[in-house]
């Protein structure tokens, strides 16, 4: 879209055998963006979005905290559940009083003691002000030989936490697709039917970067209405609408308020739309028509479906698409959801269309 720039022109399909948080993280680290599918509860979809947003960030804006009265046993349970061991210690008023890390409690046997006994106290903490330059933060952390710095305001209220790990990750993946706060970008799909308002609200609250209003037939009143309503409620939200296969469809989506238009009805490797209906538009024609129709609007076109080889990506971009959406190409990866199945000595993962009975 106009405000989201990718470093590789690839989006992962919002399908339940392709994209959940793990694949979205891997793709965003390489410079693309993943779209979390909608075949799950609202809470779980929002949680998947949060997982991507929290995975790698310059500043963890809402770090998990503990109170001075929290017991070490509770901290141990938190560590086992979350996979990390450093927790800022704050009062009820969110005033920072210390930090408890794995090192502080490694050899403690009495786990009923409160955090306040073993935490690193306020005086010895490494704190930085909000918006301080990365170099300053790293220098402070190096000087004190610590791995975590806490971001505070003038009243010493906790705003966030910076970890060395995130800086290292950022250096290893220089092309990662990130937002202004240094968090990985992620998209999520919603349907056009009634009852999707709550899903949209939950995803926006979770921090989704772009919303995909997803339908097999995007040039329909239901989809256009959903786009108009979402645009009215969230004027700055990035919205992708689709799918269409004609110039008129692309124009209709743009007029309804889309930030980008997704093109492709029936080209997918598992898609039977054209076969069943006996009618369809070849993908390169559909992409070229949509690009021509949107010329001068600044609204990009995404080619969705039929990408089997690297050459297909080149063709889509030559036809005018800004990016491609891929499903089958990523469905067999380690990061995609689903169990690995062994068949005749080879490993497989299942891949199905979102209109199939199973989905």
Automatic annotation (TrEMBL):
The keyword Nucleotide-binding does not apply. Its cofactor is K(+). The keyword NAD applies. SMART domains: CBS (SM00116), IMPDH (SM01240). GO terms for biological process: GMP biosynthetic process; GTP biosynthetic process. One of its GO terms (molecular function) is metal ion binding. Its EC number is 1.1.1.205. Residues 59-115, 119-180 form the CBS domain. It holds the Pfam family IMPDH. Keywords: CBS domain, GMP biosynthesis, Metal-binding, NAD, Oxidoreductase, Potassium, Purine biosynthesis. CDD domains: CBS_pair_IMPDH, IMPDH. Pathway: Purine metabolism; XMP biosynthesis via de novo pathway; XMP from IMP: step 1/1. It catalyses: IMP + NAD(+) + H2O = XMP + NADH + H(+). InterPro entries: Aldolase_TIM (IPR013785), CBS_dom (IPR000644), CBS_dom_sf (IPR046342), IMP_DH (IPR005990), IMP_DH/GMP_Rdtase_CS (IPR015875), IMP_DH_GMPRt (IPR001093). Belongs to the IMPDH/GMPR family. This is Inosine-5'-monophosphate dehydrogenase. It comes from Escherichia coli.
